[in-house]
Structure formats: structure tokens, C-alpha cells
């Protein structure tokens, strides 16, 4: 029986670990050929690829540091250079997942922290989308899926003001672009995780983790696979009428 994403080419940014790795594995399980982008950890990216291949899927790792303009451009052109022949210049699914957060009081924040947050969470996501969307428009089919945050809609957690600003930007970009591309067959949506158990989340059960758990009515951190299943649905042909949406998967954080 054919799988829903058979013969589709998918790029998942920042997928050598965490939510991105789970999304890569899930899209591959649905039949997609997955480009596993990583910045600095080839061994972990190769591990993600080898687990996908062992499970019978298709994936390849591509290095690109998305905190820089050059790295973002290099990733867009590698889609043509490495995969253009095999996939006829198509890219069917783009998951803009790479992101970063730094905790601390806003009044002590630095210009370099602004750059780290905005270059990765916003600028590279926008530039990569601009460079890759034309392939989807030509094919009259595509899925652009941004990984925002429940903090892109409300800000009940102190100490993450810059991050909140970037994730509100992701939600606004998603909505505006969905209008521009709506008639082309390409949808643009935003999946907003709550606190998920990854290296980005607090690494102990200290006050920050306790506060996050209280915010989520289900009383626990989410699992990366729970975000991947929401992304897999948005990536599927069944979601064609969903456009400009922010799908919040947050254990009740924003209820
Ligand atoms: N973990 C959470 O609780 C949570 C909650 C809401 C939203 N998110 C969002 O989910 C996404 C993934 O986060 P995660 O929790 O898996 O975090 P993570 O730190 O485990 O993963 C982030 C990924 O981005 C990659 N990355 C970092 N800098 C990069 C760069 N310069 N170029 C390319 N890739 C780079 C990392 O290698 C990693 O694969 C992020 O956008 C994050 O904001 C996470």
C-alpha cells in the first residue's frame, strides 16, 4: 500500500536532534525522502539518517548553519545541487524547525542575543521560505510548516521576551504568506508546541520546569513525537483546506 508522502521531498531544518529529529523520522515513515539539516553535529545527523534508513525510509544529511545568510543560501542551493536531478527541481515540504532560546531578564539582554534569536528563528526561516517556495509554486503543490511556539500567542512565562517576540513574528509571517500563496496550491501553517522534553527545555525539575508543568493542564512535558504527528498531518494531502493556521499542541498551556 502506498504511503501518504511517497515520492515527496521534505526538508526539515535543525533535525539532528529534538523535535526536528522526530519530525524527520515521522515524515520518512510516511514515505517522504527527508533532508536532515544540521549546523554542527554530523554524527548526530548521521544517526538520525541511519535510524530512518534502518526503518526502511530515505534520508540524507546536509550541513548548513542557518544563523548566517551564507548558510541559509547554501542550504537552498543544495536542494537543487544534491536533489534537483532526482526530484526534478521539486521541494514538496519545508519544515522550518531550527530555533534557539536564551533565558534571562529583558533589561539585561544584549545586541548579540537579539542577533542569535532573530537570525535563526526569524530571518533564516523567512529567507529559506522565499528561496524554496518557488519550487512548490511551479509544482502547484507544497507545504510550508513553521515551528513556532505556544509562546507565539501569549507570554505567561517570564524571562523569554526575545524568544516570544520571534515566535509572534513566525505566526504573523505564516498568516501573511498564506494569503499571498493561497491560490497556488501551497499552504503555509504554523505548529506551536508547548513545553517539550528536549535539550532546549530546562534540564532539571527546577522552578522553571515546575512552572511550565503547571501551565500545561495535562501536567507533563510533551514528547517530540506528539509534535511530529501534528506536522505529519499538516504535511499530508488531507490538510489541503488548512491555510494560515497556527495549530497549538501544548498540553493546554494556552487554554
Ligand atoms: N522544546 C520546547 O519546549 C519547544 C517549545 C516550543 C517551540 N519549540 C521550537 O521547536 C523547535 C525545535 O526545538 P527543540 O526543542 O527540538 O530544540 P533543540 O535545541 O533540541 O533543537 C534545535 C535544533 O535547531 C538546530 N540548530 C540550532 N542552531 C542552528 C543553526 N545555526 N543552523 C541550523 N540548525 C540549528 C539544532 O542543531 C537542533 O537540531 C525550535 O524552533 C523551538 O523554538 C520548542
From TrEMBL:
Domain of life: Bacteria
Record-linked InterPro entries: NAD(P)-bd_dom_sf (IPR036291), SDR (IPR050259), SDR_fam (IPR002347)
One Pfam match: adh_short
Family: Belongs to the short-chain dehydrogenases/reductases (SDR) family.
Annotated protein name in UniProt: SDR family oxidoreductase
Originating species: Paracidobacterium acidisoli
Upper lineage: Bacteria, Pseudomonadati, Acidobacteriota, Terriglobia, Terriglobales
